[in-house]
Design a protein that fits this description.
Strand content: 15-25%
Distance between the termini: 65 Å
Helix content: 40-55%
Structural class: alpha/beta
Order of helices and strands: HEHEHEHEHHEEHHHEEHHHEEE
Length: 336
């Protein structure tokens, strides 16, 4: 392989892959290829590196069917690109036009498609084209809405079989790379709609921060998020050890924790232990810091209202001096 400049996008991607052990020799790596600038950059960088990394490179594309003919043109574009490169590709689609009510529903459908692919191709990895600007935008979005360490850690380089080789690369670097390499890409016009929160942050907030606060704000937020990610991992490890000591009983759908031992923990560990218990039952998605704080106060007082309903049919209850965390669809009382 020809010598790579240390300032290049290819070098940054390769460094990220090696430092975070994202890819091993012999892996099947499937690029989530929307046809947009970021995913086209990632696809072309990995295509250049595939022999060096000794990987089997593939692509996948999910048609959300949210933009009429434009969505179909995106799909055709990806098929053309994969055909020209001789890259095996997998395609999925929503069942009907405008099926999803919001961005979150569309995201869930897209990741369900990814999970299906991973289920059919054991050991494969899906490469997502998130970059450092995405991380900065997510950092600010979650900060404005209210979050903790995990939320501010934002986007990890690797999560299970999902990898993000492009994460250290900025959007400006991506645009320059595409121009220099003369790589075609598709534009999603909805990305210019400032009514969407992420777009508003990208189009309005970040440019003001760059101009008036810190010209390197994206890099600063990226570095801050990585530090917070490490801090969160450290506290999580400590909380997991405490959780094991607090558990009185644990079975499908429920866990019983010792309230007295929980009360001796540092507030940070108290919250983290509760999150661990909840996540063992259901996803933490839609469970807010405010709700966790309310649970903490309820447990500390140990009097008055002694239960707290949470999203996803989850419930936390005080009973006989113990903390009961359970899924209402698997009734706690019926199991006693």
């Amino acid at each position: 392989m020809e010598k790579i400049s240390q300032k290049s996008v290819v070098f940054k991607v390769l460094k990220n892959i090696k430092e975070n052990k994202l890819i091993s020799s012999g892996d099947t790596v499937i690029v989530a290829l929307s046809g947009g600038p970021d995913s086209m950059c990632l696809f072309n960088v990995l295509y250049k590196l595939k022999d060096h990394l000794q990987i089997n490179l593939m692509a996948c594309h999910y048609n959300h069917r949210l933009r009429g003919e434009e969505s179909y043109n995106d799909e055709k574009f990806v098929k053309k690109i994969c055909g020209e490169r001789g890259t095996e590709s997998i395609f999925g689609s929503a069942d009907k036009e405008n099926q999803f009510k919001n961005e979150e529903e569309a995201r869930e459908a897209r990741y369900a498609f990814f999970e299906k692919i991973l289920g059919e191709r054991r050991g494969a990895k899906i490469a997502i084209a998130h970059n450092s600007n995405d991380l900065a935008e997510t950092f600010l979005m979650r900060l404005f809405r209210g979050t903790g360490l995990k939320g501010l850690s934002a986007i990890p380089s690797v999560r299970k079989n999902f990898i993000r080789p492009l994460l250290p690369v900025s959007r400006n670097e991506i645009e320059l790379y595409l121009k220099d390499e003369m790589i075609p890409f598709r534009i999603d016009k909805t990305n210019n709609d400032p009514k969407i929160t992420r777009n508003f942050i990208r189009l309005k907030i970040l440019p003001l921060l760059v101009e008036y606060v810190n010209p390197n704000i994206v890099e600063t937020l990226f570095n801050s998020a990585k530090i917070l990610e490490e801090d969160h991992a450290f506290i999580l490890l400590a909380a997991e050890k405490k959780y094991d000591k607090l558990v009185i009983e644990e079975k499908s759908g429920q866990a019983i924790l010792d309230r007295k031992k929980w009360m001796t923990l540092h507030p940070s560990l108290q919250r983290m232990v509760l999150r661990i218990a909840l996540e063992k039952k259901k996803s933490l998605r839609e469970i807010t810091n405010k709700q966790i704080s309310e649970v903490v106060e309820m447990i500390k007082k140990g009097e008055g209202k002694k239960y707290k309903p949470l999203p996803h049919s989850l419930r936390i209850e005080l009973l006989s001096g113990n903390i009961i965390i359970y899924d209402k669809t698997v009734s706690y009382r019926k199991q006693q």
